[in-house]
Amino acid sequence: MSDLHTELKKSIIEQLNLEDMEVSDIENDEHLFGDGLGLDSIDALELIVLLEKDYGIKLTDPNQGKEIFNSVNTIADFIEKNRAK
Amino acid sequence: MKGVAVTGMGIISAIGRNLNENHLSLKNAKNGITNPEILSTQHSHLPVGEIKLSNAELATILNLPENHSYTRSALLAVHSVKELLENSGYDQFPEGTGFISGTSIGGIDKTEQHFYDYSENPEYRKYIQAQHPGFTTEKIAEYFGLNGFVTTISTACSSSANAIMMGAQMIQSGKLKRVIVGGSDCLTKFTLNGFNSLKILSEEKSLPFDDDRAGLNLGEAAGYLLLEAEEYTSGRSVLGRVSGYGNANDAFHQTASSENGEGAFKAISKALNKAGLSGSDINFINAHGTGTRNNDLSESVALQRIFGKNIPAFSSTKGFTGHTLGAAGAVEAIFSLLSIQYGEIYPNLNFKTSMKETGLDPVTSIQNKEINTILSNSFGFGGNCTSLIFKKDE
Amino acid sequence: MMSKELSIKNSLIIRESRVFRNGELIFEADQGLSTTKFLKKVYNDQKLKYSKFFKMDELSKLGYLGTEILTNGSIEDKETALVFANSASSLETDVAFAQTMEEFPSPSLFVYTLPNIMLGEISIRHQLRSENIFFISEEFDPLLFIDYTTALFQQEKVENVLCGWVNLHNNDYDVFLWKIANSGGMEFNEEELKKLYLPTHE
C-alpha cells in the first residue's frame, strides 16, 4: 500500500468522523458510498473540500465526484494525475 | 371551518419595501435578483435577492438612535411590522398582543462583522448578545412595546410558516386573542458560504421546477401577519383566513429531502385534513420550489402523490425574492393572501423545460381568476415540512 | 385548563457529567471532561451502535443520547410530536463553521448550524414523521412547553409528546427531556416541571 493510500484513509477517517474505524478496516478497492463504507452526500462534499485543501485540486463539477470517490484507489489515481501540491 | 382571521400584513423583500411595491413587482413579473451590493462578500458573482437599503438607511427610516444595537434581521422585521401596524387599523398594538417570530440565523450578521473586533473595539461589544437568535425577537418586541407572549421559532426554512401555524393554534385554543406572526432573515456571509459549501447555490438566476435548475439564490426579507380571534374582527377588514396547517418530519436526511417526498406529503395531507378540504378544493399552490435539484423533484413527487393527475395551478415565487430562509413561509403567506385579494396567480419566473421525471409545468405568466383557497408549502433543513392553507374571507 | 389532564410520563437529565433517569443517577463520569469525551462515554456505557452518532455535532448527540436513554431506544407511537427548545441555538457549531469560512467552509459543519437538525436526527433514528418544533428562549420556560403541548392535545393532533430542553454553550450542556401523555404519571404543570428540571432547588 502506498503512502498516499494510507494518508487518504487517515484523512477520510478523521475528516468524516468515522470514529469506530481504523486504517486497516478500509480496503483500497472498497466502495466508499452505498453498500460499502456507507458514506452520504455530505461526506462527498467534505471529500471535495479535502481534495482542495490537501492536494490543491478544485473540482469544478461536483458530479465528477461520483467516479473519483468510488474507492480509495480511484481517489489516489485522481490525485496522482492532478495534484498541485 | 372558518379559519383564523388575518387582519394586517407587512413585508419588505428584494421586490419591494411594502405590500404595494411587492404586489406591483409580482404583477409585472419583475424579479429582485442581482449580484450582492450591500452585503460585502468575496462571492460577489452569486446572485441574491437583496434589499437595496443599508443598515444605516434602515435605521434612519425607523428613527433609531445612532448607537442602536439592532441587527439587520431586526431592522427588516421592524420595518415590516410597522407597515402591518399601519394597515391593521390600530394606532398601537393592544395590550396582550402576542409575537411569534421565526428566524434561521438571528443576529449572525453582526457577529460575523465584528467577531474579531470584540476584544479590541469595545463599541462593538453591544452586538455580542445579538448573536442570540432570541435577541432579535426581543428587540422587535421592545420597539413596539409588546410585552405579552413573545417567542422565537428556529426550524430553518419553515420557521415563519411554523410561526403562523403556532399563532393560529394558540388563537383556536383560546390562549391568545391577537398575535403577530411571521419571520425575518437577512443575507449573511455565513449562509452564503454555507449554502455554497453544500453546492446548492446557482450562479445564474434560479429556475424553480425547471429540468435545467442548478440551485437556489439566497434572499432576505421580513414578513408579518396579524392574526385575531373572531370577536375582534367585526367592522375590520379580514384579508383572508388561515384555515389549515400541518407539519411533519421527512425523517430522511439532515438537509436533503426524500425521493418520495414523504414529509411534504404528510404535511400537505395534515393541512387539508385540518381545513376539512380535499385536493380538488385547492385553486392554487404556492410551492416551496427553491430551484435545487433535490427539493423541486421531491416536492413534485409529493404533489403528484396528493393530487394525482389533477395538480392545481402552482408556482414558486423564489424566482422573484430568492430563498429568504426563515422568512420564506411568511413572505409566501402574504403573496398567497395578495393572490386571494386581487384574484391573481403570480408566475414561476425563468421556467422553460419541464422536469423529465414528472413533466409538470408551473404557471409561467400572470393569470387573473378568482382564488378561494391556496396551499403554501415551506420545507426546512432538519426535515421540517410545513403546509398552510389560506382561504378567502366569506 | 386542559393541561391538568395531561401527565408527565418520565424524564431525563444530562448535566455536569451525570445522567439521571426519572431522578435516579444512572451514569456518572469524571467532572471536567470535554463534552465530546463525556458523550462518547455515555454512548459506550449505553452500548449503543449507531455510526451516525459520530457524525453529529454535540448538540445533536445530546438530543440523540437523551432520547435513546429516556425511551430505551424505542418510540412506539410514530406520531409522537417533538417539542424542543434551548437558549444558545446551534452557537457552538456556528462558531466552528465560521472558523472554517476563511479558507475552506466545511459542509458537514454547516449542516449542523441549525438547532432543529437535532430533531431531524431523532426523527431519522426513530423513523418519526410527526410534528416538530424548536423554540429559542433565554432560559428554560415551562409555560412555553405547556402552552404548545396543550394546544397539540386540544386539537387532537397527538397522543404523545416528547419535550426537550437541550442547551449547549461553552462546553456547558443542559439536557432535560420528558414525555407527555393523556394519563399515567405526574401532573403536567409548571410546578412539577420546575421541580423535575431543578431537583436540587426544591
From TrEMBL, chain A:
Domain Carrier: 2-83
InterPro entries (UniProt xref): ACP-like_sf, PP-bd_ACP, Ppantetheine_attach_site
PROSITE patterns in alphabetical order: CARRIER (PS50075), PHOSPHOPANTETHEINE (PS00012)
A family per Pfam: PP-binding
Keywords: Phosphopantetheine, Phosphoprotein
NCBIfam families documented for this protein: PRK09184.1
Protein name per Swiss-Prot or TrEMBL: Phosphopantetheine-binding protein
Organism: Christiangramia lutea
UniProtKB/TrEMBL annotation, chain B:
GO molecular function, one term: 3-oxoacyl-[acyl-carrier-protein] synthase activity
Residue ranges of every copy of the Ketosynthase family 3 (KS3) domain listed in the record: 1-392
Pfam family, one: ketoacyl-synt
Single Gene Ontology BP annotation: fatty acid biosynthetic process
Keyword Transferase assigned: yes
Family: Belongs to the thiolase-like superfamily. Beta-ketoacyl-ACP synthases family.
Name of the protein this chain belongs to: Beta-ketoacyl-[acyl-carrier-protein] synthase family protein
Species whose genome carries this gene: Christiangramia lutea
TrEMBL record, chain C:
Name of the protein in its database record: 3-oxoacyl-ACP synthase
